[in-house]
Specification:
Keywords: ATP-binding, Nucleotide-binding. The protein is of the alpha+beta class and 269 residues long. It has nine helices and eleven strands. The protein has a six-stranded antiparallel sheet with strand order 1-2-3-4-6-5. Strands 7-9-10 form a three-stranded antiparallel sheet. The chain binds adenosine-5'-triphosphate (ATP).
């Protein structure tokens, strides 16, 4: 690494350094906990001191400059179009000391990633398909609004009691738009795919595999997920059929409702 790159890294880490707990933004949002540093934002749990409500505050990463702001503006625009009990509402957006912020509802509960990998939750085939059927209701709503989520993954699905929430609309695109790869990722400049519902269905296929592998005894989870799930998992022929279509091994579902019909058929048999 040359000296310039090194100094740039040090400078970025310094300007992106998370704010301390207790810091108050615009006299209204008191920072309670830093949640994480994403590809273009810093996210905190805050207390809205006026309403006493816990909210999530996302700040565009200062080091990403205009690009970070544009991506956060985009996410604000996407959330503004959505109104669904399982999707966090955008409560406000504002500029403060030349920084852009977005305020959304705080979703309590645990991500599917934490449930499976930290708490060791195991999902049977039926439980996994029932869960995904409910997730498809949320996703169908998103698709009906002309959007594709493009980041359906275990950490972006939260279970709060019996309620499922879908979060992280940072990559969401309008149907037919060219897909932007995750900011800073290796494919950033090479991705040319168009955003379509099968992109989300493909991710749903992987999502189901992760849920089904929760009951699989092995030390080498990742490797096996990418290789022989058809040999390793014992699932019904219809589940295998659905997975092969979702994962585009067989001709994919062109309409998500075809998948929902197959799911309903499985669940009602
Ligand atoms: N509304 C929310 N309620 C609860 N937790 C949230 C909410 N929004 C984000 N989080 C959590 O905050 C953390 C940071 O989220 P954020 O979307 O900023 O970045 P990321 O998802 O980690 O990265 P990237 O932006 O690169 O996808 C994640 O752990 C996420 O689960």
């Amino acid at each position: 690494m040359d000296v310039i790159e090194y100094l740039k890294g040090v400078y970025e880490a310094w300007i992106d350094y998370p704010k301390r707990e207790g810091t108050v933004i615009t006299d209204k949002y008191r920072i309670q906990q830093f949640l994480g540093l994403g590809s273009y934002g810093l996210t905190y749990i805050c207390m809205d001191v006026d309403s006493g409500q816990e909210v999530v505050l996302k700040q565009a990463k200062p080091s990403k400059g205009k690009v970070g702001r544009d991506l956060l503006y985009r996410e604000i625009g996407v959330l503004g179009r959505l109104s669904h009990p399982s999707i966090q509402r955008c409560l406000a957006s504002f500029e403060y000391k030349k920084q852009l912020y977005m305020v959304t509802e705080y979703v309590k509960g645990q991500t599917l990633e934490d449930l499976i990998f930290e708490r060791g939750e195991v999902f049977s085939e039926q439980e996994a398909l029932r869960f995904v059927r409910r997730l498809m209701e949320i996703l169908s709503y998103v698709h009906e609004q002309g959007l594709v989520h493009l980041d359906i993954r275990l950490p972006n699905v939260i279970l709060d009691g019996d309620q499922i929430h879908l979060i992280d609309f940072g990559l969401a695109s309008h149907l037919g738009e060219p897909i932007r790869a995750k900011f800073g990722s290796a494919e950033e400049t090479t991705h040319r795919e168009i955003a379509e519902t099968p992109n989300d269905l493909y991710a749903i296929g992987h999502f189901i595999l992760f849920m089904l592998y929760s009951g699989y005894n092995s030390d080498n989870f990742e490797v096996e997920l990418n290789s022989g799930w058809e040999d390793e998992l014992t699932v019904s022929p219809l589940t295998k059929h659905m997975l092969r279509k979702l994962l585009q091994i067989d001709p994919p579902y062109t309409d998500p409702q075809q998948f929902v019909r197959d799911l309903d058929h499985w669940l009602n048999q």
